[in-house]
């Protein structure tokens, strides 16, 4: 909430679609925000978005799911990005199809050929490689469990429809590809691509200092006071988002002022006690001097 108090750096880029379709986004770690900028944002749609990250060009896509003709049109339209001449390209996202069903689907009937002729033709034209294939093409080669390979599960059926492709120019940058449980509710697993430029020297990223809205010595109590204020004034109907944000800001200001007054009162009381103790000490010293 305290991001509204001042100018904040851009830490995400979004292209939003209808509630049924969702959209795509790219989130950025704060220490790398200065290296990221929009890439060909005039070509952004609800299903594709691109950014420049240092020497990399990152394109995030969300292909149509159930309609193969629409999906093939989508992959054809990616040619507008002129990716043939793009070096250090990383193409990532939910492709809603696989190129090697024998390896990348589990259960059911699995065909031998690619599920998208256009995507396979594009990857060859753009000279991009499946990052997982750079590590090995089969589960037995990598000694991976199915949970570490497939990214989308439906009962006993699974597939690897969420993938990373990297240009051959930066294939040597690929260190590892890992699959994890999602950090927030999702029907897809989280896929991580680990890259490292071979010629780059290890650097220690600059950690940005977080400015918290309330400074206090008892954060647990402050959290409880904020929650009590929010819960106590919450209505039965779903609030408007902007109104809710304004309400949260006013509650934070209220709690902050109350805590500041409380800390000032404690400080004044301690100062008064110290002054009284100092007077008593001076009186004792005077008595000792007179006695001597």
Primary descriptors:
7 helices; 6-stranded mixed beta sheet; disordered N terminus; 3-stranded antiparallel beta sheet; 292 residues; Deoxyribonuclease I, Chain A; alpha+beta; 13 strands
Describe the 3D structure.
- Keywords: Nucleotidyltransferase, RNA-directed DNA polymerase, Transferase.
- The protein has seven helices and 13 strands.
- The chain is α+β, with helices and mostly antiparallel strands.
- The protein folds into two domains: 194 residues, Deoxyribonuclease I, Chain A; 73 residues.
- A six-stranded mixed β-sheet has the order 3-4-5-6-11-8. A three-stranded antiparallel β-sheet has the order 7-10-9. The chain has a two-stranded antiparallel sheet with strand order 1-2.
- A hairpin with a 6-residue loop joins strand 1 and strand 2.
- Helix 1 runs parallel beside helix 3 and helix 6 packs antiparallel against helix 7.
- The chain starts with 11 loop residues before the first strand and ends with a helix.
Q: What's the helix and strand layout?
A:
Layout: E1 12-16, E2 23-27, E3 36-38, E4 48-53, E5 56-62, H1 68-77, E6 89-94, H2 101-104, E7 105-106, H3 117-126, E8 128-130, H4 131-135, H5 139-142, E9 152-154, E10 157-159, E11 162-167, E12 174-180, E13 190-195, H6 219-233, H7 241-291
Parallel strand pairs: 5-6
Antiparallel strand pairs: 1-2, 3-4, 4-5, 6-11, 7-10, 8-11, 9-10, 12-13
Helix pairs in contact: 1-3, 6-7
